[in-house]
Design goal:
Strand order of the largest sheet: 1-2-3
Distance between the termini: 19 Å
Order of helices and strands: EEEEEHEEH
Number of helices: 2
Strand content: 25-35%
Largest sheet: 3 strands, antiparallel
Shape: globular
Number of strands: 7
Radius of gyration: 12 Å
Length: 77
Protein backbone atom coordinates (compact mmCIF):
# COMPACT_ATOMS: atom_id res chain seq x y z
CA UNK A 1 0.00 0.00 0.00
CA UNK A 2 3.04 2.27 0.30
CA UNK A 3 3.94 1.78 -3.35
CA UNK A 4 3.41 4.19 -6.22
CA UNK A 5 1.87 3.52 -9.61
CA UNK A 6 3.89 4.85 -12.55
CA UNK A 7 3.82 3.92 -16.23
CA UNK A 8 1.52 0.91 -15.71
CA UNK A 9 3.84 -0.45 -13.00
CA UNK A 10 3.62 -0.81 -9.25
CA UNK A 11 6.82 0.75 -7.90
CA UNK A 12 8.28 0.21 -4.45
CA UNK A 13 11.77 1.52 -3.82
CA UNK A 14 13.93 0.50 -6.77
CA UNK A 15 11.58 -2.33 -7.80
CA UNK A 16 8.93 -2.14 -10.54
CA UNK A 17 6.20 -4.70 -11.23
CA UNK A 18 3.88 -4.83 -14.23
CA UNK A 19 2.32 -8.14 -13.12
CA UNK A 20 1.59 -9.51 -9.65
CA UNK A 21 0.87 -13.13 -8.74
CA UNK A 22 -1.09 -13.49 -5.50
CA UNK A 23 -0.52 -17.12 -4.50
CA UNK A 24 -2.94 -18.23 -1.80
CA UNK A 25 -3.63 -14.68 -0.61
CA UNK A 26 -6.90 -14.66 1.31
CA UNK A 27 -6.54 -11.48 3.43
CA UNK A 28 -5.60 -7.90 2.56
CA UNK A 29 -6.08 -4.56 4.22
CA UNK A 30 -8.71 -2.43 2.49
CA UNK A 31 -5.91 0.05 1.66
CA UNK A 32 -3.92 -2.67 -0.10
CA UNK A 33 -7.00 -3.83 -2.00
CA UNK A 34 -7.58 -0.23 -3.14
CA UNK A 35 -3.95 0.03 -4.30
CA UNK A 36 -4.32 -3.21 -6.29
CA UNK A 37 -7.49 -1.91 -7.94
CA UNK A 38 -5.72 1.34 -8.83
CA UNK A 39 -2.79 -0.69 -10.22
CA UNK A 40 -5.07 -2.71 -12.52
CA UNK A 41 -6.94 0.39 -13.63
CA UNK A 42 -3.56 1.92 -14.56
CA UNK A 43 -2.77 -1.06 -16.80
CA UNK A 44 -1.14 -3.55 -14.42
CA UNK A 45 -2.09 -7.22 -14.24
CA UNK A 46 -2.91 -9.42 -11.25
CA UNK A 47 -3.31 -13.19 -11.18
CA UNK A 48 -4.84 -14.87 -8.12
CA UNK A 49 -3.63 -18.43 -7.64
CA UNK A 50 -5.58 -20.78 -5.42
CA UNK A 51 -7.61 -18.11 -3.63
CA UNK A 52 -9.09 -14.70 -4.29
CA UNK A 53 -8.69 -12.22 -1.41
CA UNK A 54 -11.99 -11.85 0.45
CA UNK A 55 -11.04 -10.96 4.02
CA UNK A 56 -9.30 -8.09 5.73
CA UNK A 57 -6.18 -8.44 7.80
CA UNK A 58 -6.81 -8.06 11.52
CA UNK A 59 -9.80 -8.35 13.81
CA UNK A 60 -10.63 -4.69 14.52
CA UNK A 61 -13.72 -3.68 12.48
CA UNK A 62 -13.26 -6.91 10.54
CA UNK A 63 -16.84 -7.16 9.27
CA UNK A 64 -16.74 -3.68 7.73
CA UNK A 65 -13.20 -4.18 6.42
CA UNK A 66 -14.02 -7.65 5.02
CA UNK A 67 -16.91 -6.11 3.06
CA UNK A 68 -14.63 -3.33 1.78
CA UNK A 69 -12.01 -5.85 0.61
CA UNK A 70 -14.64 -7.98 -1.17
CA UNK A 71 -16.13 -4.93 -2.89
CA UNK A 72 -12.75 -3.65 -4.09
CA UNK A 73 -11.55 -7.08 -5.27
CA UNK A 74 -14.82 -7.66 -7.17
CA UNK A 75 -14.11 -4.46 -9.13
CA UNK A 76 -10.80 -5.83 -10.40
CA UNK A 77 -11.39 -7.09 -13.95
Amino acid sequence: RDSEIKDRCLCFGSRKYSTLFLAGVESLSPESARKLLDFVRAGGRIFCIGKVPSKSAGWKNHETNDAAVRLLVEKIP
